Structure formats: C-alpha cells, structure tokens
Amino acid sequence: MSLSTRQQIRTLVRSRRQAISSNQQNMHANDLVVRVSQLSALNTAKKVALYLAKDGELDTLPTIHWLWTQDIETYLPVIHPFSKGQLLFLRYDQNTVLIRNRYQILEPKLSQCAICPVSQLDIIFTPLVAFDASGQRLGMGGGYYDRTLAPWENTPVGPTAIGLAHDCQQIDALPTESWDIPLETIITPSKTWHWSK
Predict the structure, then answer these.
(1) What are the structural domain ranges in the chain?
(2) Residue 41 CA, distance from chain mean position
(3) Which segments does the entry list as coiled coil (predicted)?
C-alpha cells in the first residue's frame, strides 16, 4: 500500500486519540499501571525505557511512578544529536531536567553519564499511532523505533519491545513495509496482546 494510505491511517487514528477526554485519559493511564504490573517480564527487569505522552498518547507517567516504587530504573528516549534518525536512552528520575526536542516532545537534557546502551535495557515500551491484530505497529513515520529495535529482532538477547496504545488505535490490518518491526506484546487499557515470532 502507498505512503498516502499510511498517512491517512495516521491522521484518522491520531484524531481518535486526540478525542479522548482528560477523564478517560486518566482512567486509561491507571488501567495501564495495572496491566504493566502484571507483566511477567517485569519480574527480572532492572532497566525499562518508556516515553512521555504527547498528542493524546496513552499517559505513561503513573506507570513510571509505579516503576520507581519497584526500584526499577526508567529511561526516556532522546533524539541522537549526531546520528540521524537514531535514539539514545537516558536515565529519568525526579531530578531529571527535561527540555523540548525538535518535535516539541519532552526529553532529558543530554548527559553522557545518564545514557544507557540499548543492549542493557530489559524492556522498551514503545509509542505507536496504530496497530493491528497481528502485532504490526505504525509509528509517526520517523522510523526511530524501527531502527532502535531492528538489531534485536529475531535474537534471544537484547530488550523486549512492548507497544502501548489506547484501544481505539487498533485497526483491522496495517499496510507494512520491509523495515517495520512487529511487536510481540501490545498493551491497551483493556487488554494485553501477545504474539509469538
């Protein structure tokens, strides 16, 4: 399918996401904490990457705060200053200074000592615009997460990628490209989806 079709899906699903009321957003964020707390992958996880919500995305802050209570280190993505299209992951805690990146998304101020190599992350919770019943995800189009996850696809080592989304972000079937990385797990407020590779 064409790029325009993918863009049409982005526009449609983003409008659904943006229409969610603040009360519903709060409920969904709390439902997410419950679902994440039930993940078996968290039993051994020490370092977990998330993101800060924007544009109606599922709010991760309550989950981040819960992870802190479990003594699990949390990390946020930062756009790499030198390697185009790449992400770094920096430690995030109560004292982290946040700045806005070129997409107006809050990210930790770059500090070399706060960087965690992707190979040392146990879980990467990824944002997405849309997903389908086979675990395909559609991002914003920049390819940042596909590039981050590509080296770990089909390997037994490295971080586990788990998508986070509102239920309304599911569509029947996504058009896919060769670089798209499907997810083994996607969590919505009402369900945890699992697929085997």
Answers:
(1) 3-194
(2) 16
(3) none
- The number of beta carbons lying within 10 Å of the beta carbon of residue 173 is 10
How buried is residue 38: exposed, middle or buried, by Cβ count under 10 Å (0-12/13-18/19+)?
A: exposed
Q: Which helix (H) or strand (E) holds 98?
A: strand 98-100
- For 54-74, the pLDDT digits (tens) are 999 999 999 999 999 999 999
- Binding-site residues for ATP sit at 6-10, 137-145
CATH superfamily of the domain spanning 3-194: NagB/RpiA/CoA transferase-like (3.40.50.10420)
- Binding-site residues, in ranges, read 6-10, 52, 57, 137-145
Taking the mean position of all CA atoms in its chain, how far away is CA 103? 16
Residues tagged in the binding site annotation for substrate: 52, 57
CA distance 180 to 195: 16
Q: Distance (Å, rounded) from C-alpha 108 to C-alpha 106?
A: 7
